[in-house]
Amino acid sequence: MRQALRWPWPDFDVDNVLAPAIAVRVDVTGNRTEVPEHWHRKGQLVFALGGGVTCRVPSGFWMVPPHCGVWIPSRMEHSNIATANAWIFFVYIEPGAAELPDRCCTLSISPLLRELIIELSDCAPDDARCDFLGRILLAELPLMPVQQLHLPISSEPRLRRIAEALAESPADRSTLAEWASRVALSESSLARLVVKETGLSFGRWRQQLHLIVAIRELAAGASVQQVSADLGYESVTAFITMFRKALGKPPAKYLSDIAQNGGSAFVA
User: What would the pLDDT profile of 165-207 be if each residue is shown by its tens digit?
Assistant: First the structure.
């Protein structure tokens, strides 16, 4: 039985299913969909076959472009925002059933694993075939490469305030000095705080946010020109140059390689 669901799920609690691994397909309508903050006893893999998903956890924002997945460990608070018409699968895994990281991370998804997830979503959890597919999935998933496509944030209130403002208005080009004034810090103190909490300079941190937003919107069908304008770049060329320097290839090539190679287009 294919488990195609729409949020909220009134009669389905994944934590009550004892199978080592189950998968459900989530249908997203023509509008952007947000799943509010929640957690599961099981670990969760958020996999996008089409469109894109942004996951938010206490330590940062994580982007799920097509043919990649974000691993969310057991009991970690998180929320998900899916682009319009996204094709998403949630894979729920019993704690300890596979040797997976104890932190949130983006994973490449191989063509074999992709097909396993799709097939697993087609069968009932108590079906013997479901158990067989789940065990192969649990053997393959820990082998997937970890990719670096997230925006680190922290519980530090001033930094979180800036992160939320930039996520809401990514085209905001306020300088470090202007942000420092808004959060009642000196420019040098804010610069040190960003490095301490994220490991990145302010400029690199904001660029990482732009990459996350850009990939999400491009995956949803937006043009390079539209994304460039939405992010406040003076020209399309400037945006493409930033993208190529950060990820090794221009936007169109990057997304086509993801689709062809099952997520292996990332540059760590």
Answer: 888 888 999 999 999 999 999 999 999 999 999 899 999 999 9
In this prediction, residue 95 carries a pLDDT of 95
Distance between CA atoms of residues 190 and 176, nearest Å: 8
In b/e form, how buried is each residue of 28-56, taking b as 16+ CB within 10 angstroms? beeeebebeeeebebbbbbbbbbbbbbbb
Please tell me the predicted confidence (pLDDT) of residue 57: 86
**Nearest CA-CA partner of 73 in 39, 49, 107, 34:** 39
Judge residue 248's burial from the number of C-beta atoms within 10 Å of its C-beta, 0-12 exposed, 13-18 middle, 19 or more buried: middle
d(CA 224, CA 204): 21
| Answer CATH for 4-147 from 2.40.128.280, 3.80.10.10, 2.60.120.280, 3.90.180.10 | 2.60.120.280
Q: What rounded mean pLDDT belongs to the chain? A: 84
Strands 60-64 and 150-152: antiparallel
Q: From 6, 9, 40, 55, select the one nearest 26 (Cα to Cα).
A: 6
Range list for CATH 2.60.120.280 in the chain: 4-147
145: DSSP letter: P
Which residues pair with residue 23 across a beta bridge?
91
One of 3.40.50.300, 2.60.40.2470, 1.10.10.60, 3.60.21.10 is the CATH number of 150-261, namely 1.10.10.60
What is the C-alpha separation between 108 and 144, in angstroms, rounded? 6
Euclidean distance between CA atoms 52 and 64, whole angstroms? 6
